Amino acid sequence: xxxQNDNSAPAQVLAVTExxxxxxxxxxxxxxxxxAQLERLHAFxxxxxxxxxxxxxxxxxxxxxxxxxxxxxxxLTIFRRDIQRIDIEATAxxxxxxxxxxxxxxxQSAQVTLKRADLAFQHFFRRVKAxxxxxxxxxxxxxxxxxxxxxTHGDGFRFEPGLGxxxxxxxxxxxxxxxxxxxxxxxxxxxxxxxxxxxxxGNENGGWFLSLVVACAPYRERTGEGIVAGDPGIxxxxxxxxxxxxxxxxxxxxxxxxxxxxxxxxSRALSRRPGRRSxxxxxKLRSLRRQLRSLANRRKNRAHQLSARLAAENRVIAxxxxxxxxxxxxxxxxxxxxxxxxQQKAGLNRELLDLGLSQLYSMVAYKAEEADGRLILxxxxxxxxxxxxxxxxxxxxxxxxxxxxRCPDCGLILTRDQASALYLLRIVQQTIAD
Length: 434
Hints:
Elements: E1 2-3, E2 14-15, E3 21-29, H1 32-63, H2 69-92, H3 100-103, H4 107-129, E4 147-150, E5 157-161, E6 166-172, E7 179-184, E8 190-199, E9 207-215, E10 226-232, E11 236-242, E12 247-251, H5 255-271, H6 279-313, E13 314-320, H7 324-327, H8 342-354, H9 357-370, E14 374-378, H10 380-383, E15 404-406, E16 413-415, H11 416-433
Parallel strand pairs: 10-13, 13-14
Antiparallel strand pairs: 1-2, 3-7, 3-9, 4-8, 5-6, 6-7, 8-9, 10-11, 11-12, 15-16
């Protein structure tokens, strides 16, 4: 099947397999009967995921044998065939159909769940080989299992978008009727696969969301031809140095600090009676999930707006490459060699993680590509932007407490972040010239 970009800009007609893929999220509004069926499917996939983990653990513990994804798919086929036979025999004998709820489960959807279990073990073994903390795959409870998916449009699910891909209707195998979906795709395309995700939204059973993967020819209009370099930080989220001169400082609105007290208060209320599942505690738990999801949504929205602005105004964007895993490592040490300034480092880690830099960098990368732009990541270990003067190139070490750059050689005075951003701009200008 061929798909062409619907935007006004000219686009080449490409095969679906050659097109980039983007995710589109819609909020679902199921009826009471549809919600009950979605919850039933959710419970089945949760049990299947846990059973897949248990089978692999038992096979190794008892026989030192590894169970592959293909092995579990074959076992699933045999299981489905057996329960169909048992139900047919029960119907013929006039008895109750014990496995009736599981007979109509889509086979491709079940394989998606088995693949998730397989990926969990792949990541576990990768961490073991790399010498990292392994993190053995965990069994999922009802509240911790995110949802289930389908790998082929038309096999188990079908989405019918509205005019201009605004809103639509979703049909799911095993769920009566069609489910209303509200949202809008920025770039229409060919639906490839989907996930049905269960998230906290204030309802007792959570809200349902449709996450579609769409093969499309994304395009963004670029209004500027600038070159900009940015230095991330805590005082300012991003300090930008522009090719034409001048700086722009993106304020760090400190989203975690705004929500911290409310989240901590809800967490304290939950911790007073651990293990109890009263209606009041369930309500508090829903409140906590809703607060955390609201915080994540605000952080994501900030990253979307900033990345879209950068991609629209600039053809080249340079950012300092960040090794967040190393930057946010704990300082507590061990019992034999305890760390120092542990609380201060923990607070710094919270501030760094609240910036959402990984999410921001990822969005800048794909949006710059869609706008026919370019993202350049500059290694700070090689170029040392915070220690190098952008005026004369002299290197002078600074401590973290030094927030101003005062060069003793050329006399340049800038804030630390402005000096770093300007030096990054010099590097990217030289890179482009070469």
